[in-house]
């Protein structure tokens, strides 16, 4: 069977070819609604599909979006970010073109040029971890940055609220009664997320009236082995300042803390509480006990970026940075500090209160 033509629809509906063209292209005209319905019904009956090329020439829109990323297939978080973008594109009848540059500047430049030549309706530039970067040459002015932001500004972007996430993670520990809380940091090239999470850690300690000990901040390789080495250093500290709770830069490092604790016969959370970051699939929830962690909102960021690119989400200035909430996922790795430590903390709190009362009386 040959390709169905507009003349076939006209014959089936009993109208002219021009009438079919006006109806199928949603052109404003005085054609009665009953006639429009007859044309649409006839088109469906004969299997007619309007030419997307012809429609794009008329509307100046191709209903396509290009997404360029440094890494798509090689990170555990890319799938959720792409799923969010893809779902919004599909909901609004757009096709998403994905280009993985592997961080190659030449491939990136060619991809931007090729997508521009295809006249995509919008472009999204994504990174697979929170970064500040230089704006790629040739990127359209209305492009949206996903999980990254341009150093010079000038574009809308969405990134995780790492500082607030770090603060929420440590609050979960202070609310459980912990006063000696360590931050196991990364010593690798992830300065933005690491520093922001550390700032959140310090803010939460300050809120709880806790003076951080420099010995509680330990950096190591971002891996289970790195987490284990850092935890062993912290567990070797003198009892007076030994942490009863660890906040880890990511879930993989937290699994190293589990190993260090188990090797010493410590129970989580009876003897030691642990909070991770990422809520990494097949990692956080699979620990014994399941790990309390902070979720990176990759799916939500993907949706936000696509909505902004398509003009569905219009709030914010052109160079506004949207910080997406990172919620705490509460599982079973957080409990109160060990009984003897809890008594020490209560005694310290009682002495602090008594000193405060005495000072007030003296005045």
List the helices and strands and how they pair.
Blueprint: H1 6-13, H2 17-24, H3 33-46, H4 52-59, E1 64-69, H5 78-91, E2 95-100, H6 105-117, E3 122-133, E4 144-150, E5 156-160, H7 162-174, E6 181-186, H8 191-207, E7 217-220, H9 224-235, E8 245-248, H10 251-263, E9 273-275, E10 293-294, H11 298-309, E11 321-324, E12 328-329, H12 339-362
Parallel strand pairs: 1-2, 1-3, 3-4, 4-5, 5-11, 6-7, 6-8, 8-9
Antiparallel strand pairs: 10-12
Helix pairs in contact: 1-2, 1-3, 5-11, 7-8, 9-10
Spatial order of the strands in the main sheet?
2-1-3-4-5-11
Oligomeric status:
single chain
Q: State the major sheet.
A: 6 strands, parallel
- Give the rounded overall mean pLDDT: 88
Uncertain residue ranges: 346-363
- Cα radius of gyration in angstroms: 28 Å
CATH topology of the largest domain: Rossmann fold
Number of β-strand runs = 12
The helix count comes to 12
Helical residue percent band: 40-55%
- How far the N terminus sits from the C terminus, by CA atoms, comes to 99 Å
Number of domains: 3
Region (Disordered): 328-363
Keywords: DNA-binding, Repressor, Transcription, Transcription regulation
GO molecular function, one term: DNA binding
Pfam families: LacI, Peripla_BP_3
Which key features would you list for this structure?
alpha/beta; 3 domains; LacI family DNA-binding transcriptional regulator; four-stranded parallel β-sheet; 43% helix; Rossmann fold; 363 residues; six-stranded parallel β-sheet; elongated; disordered C terminus
Tell me what you see in this structure:
With 363 residues, this protein is α/β, with parallel strands linked by helices. It has 3 domains: 45 residues, no CATH class; 114 residues, Rossmann fold (3-Layer(aba) Sandwich), CATH 3.40.50; 149 residues, 3-Layer(aba) Sandwich (Rossmann fold). It has 12 helices and 12 strands. Strands 2-1-3-4-5-11 form a 6-stranded parallel sheet, sandwiched between helices. The chain has a 4-stranded parallel sheet with strand order 7-6-8-9, sandwiched between helices. Strands 10-12 form a two-stranded antiparallel sheet. β8, α10 and β9 form a beta-alpha-beta unit. α7 packs parallel to α8. It starts with 5 loop residues before the first helix and ends with a helix.
């Amino acid at each position: 069977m040959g390709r169905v033509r507009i003349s076939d629809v006209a014959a089936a509906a009993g109208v002219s070819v021009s009438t079919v063209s006006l109806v199928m292209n949603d052109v404003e005209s005085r054609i009665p609604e009953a006639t429009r319905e007859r044309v649409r019904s006839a088109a469906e009956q004969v299997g007619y599909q309007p030419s997307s090329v012809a429609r794009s020439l008329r509307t100046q829109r191709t209903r396509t979006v290009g997404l360029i990323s440094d890494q798509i297939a090689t990170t555990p978080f890319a799938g959720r970010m792409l799923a969010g973008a893809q779902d919004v594109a599909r909901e609004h009848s757009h096709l998403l073109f994905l280009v993985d540059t592997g961080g190659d500047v030449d491939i990136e430049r060619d991809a931007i040029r090729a997508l521009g030549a295809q006249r995509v309706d919008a472009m999204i530039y994504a990174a697979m971890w929170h970064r500040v970067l230089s704006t790629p040459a040739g990127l359209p002015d209305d492009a949206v940055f996903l999980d990254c932001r341009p150093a010079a500004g000038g574009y809308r972007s969405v990134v995780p609220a790492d500082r607030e996430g770090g603060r929420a993670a440590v609050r979960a520990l202070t609310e459980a009664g912990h006063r000696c809380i360590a931050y196991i940091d990364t010593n690798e090239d992830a300065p933005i997320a690491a520093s922001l999470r550390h700032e959140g850690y310090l803010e939460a300690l300050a809120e709880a009236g806790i003076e951080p000990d420099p010995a509680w901040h330990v950096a190591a390789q971002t891996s289970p082995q790195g987490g284990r080495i850092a935890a062993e250093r912290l567990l070797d500290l003198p009892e007076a300042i030994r942490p009863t709770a660890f906040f880890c830069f990511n879930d993989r490092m937290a699994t190293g803390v589990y190993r260090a604790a188990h090797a010493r016969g410590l129970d989580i959370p009876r003897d030691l509480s642990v909070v991770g970051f990422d809520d990494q699939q097949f990692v956080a929830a699979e620990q014994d006990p399941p790990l309390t962690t902070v979720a990176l909102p990759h799916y939500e960021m993907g949706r936000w970026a696509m909505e902004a690119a398509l003009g569905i989400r219009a709030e914010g200035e052109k160079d506004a940075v949207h910080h997406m909430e990172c919620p705490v996922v509460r599982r079973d790795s957080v409990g109160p500090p060990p009984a003897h430590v809890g008594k020490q903390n209560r005694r310290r709190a009682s002495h602090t209160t008594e000193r405060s009362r005495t000072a007030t009386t003296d005045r």
